[in-house]
Design goal:
134 residues
Length: 134
């Protein structure tokens, strides 16, 4: 039981880091383009950011809760704790703001964010791996 709880907490920590990575990129890329920071054009970092947000958007479009939330919830339940029935961010919003927003709202937000990141890929293009940063 204790190992399930520990693993659930590890998944939660990873999930929070992944969310922070995504939010950080949403802020850092346009800010870095404006400030001339070359590191925001690093190809692998930008590709990872785009892919991570694509996974979020596709899961939302399919009406699926994030697989990390599902794994964490199942492990918490196996450890005798209450699990989550909603996506992690939706659960936080519900707890913090007491809003009961439909999944459609979050799906729309996730897809719009991914489209925004895709536009950033075009407006602030990453440097391809075979080219050097200046």
């Amino acid at each position: 039981m204790q190992s399930e709880l520990w693993l659930a907490q590890a998944i939660l920590a990873f999930h929070i880091l992944l969310i922070a990575f995504n939010v950080f990129g949403l802020i850092a890329i346009p800010l870095g383009a404006w400030r001339g920071w070359q590191w925001v054009r690093i190809f692998w970092w930008r590709a990872l950011h785009l892919a991570a947000l694509l996974v979020v958007a596709v899961q939302a479009l399919l009406g699926s809760v994030c697989f990390l939330t599902i794994w964490q919830s199942e492990l918490q339940e196996a450890a005798g704790r209450q699990g989550y029935r909603l996506p992690l961010i939706q659960t936080w919003v519900n707890h913090l703001l007491f809003w009961h927003l439909p999944m459609f709202f979050f799906t729309t937000i996730y897809v719009l964010i991914w489209i925004g990141v895709l536009l950033l890929w075009w407006k602030v293009p990453p440097v391809l791996p075979w080219r050097r940063l200046r």
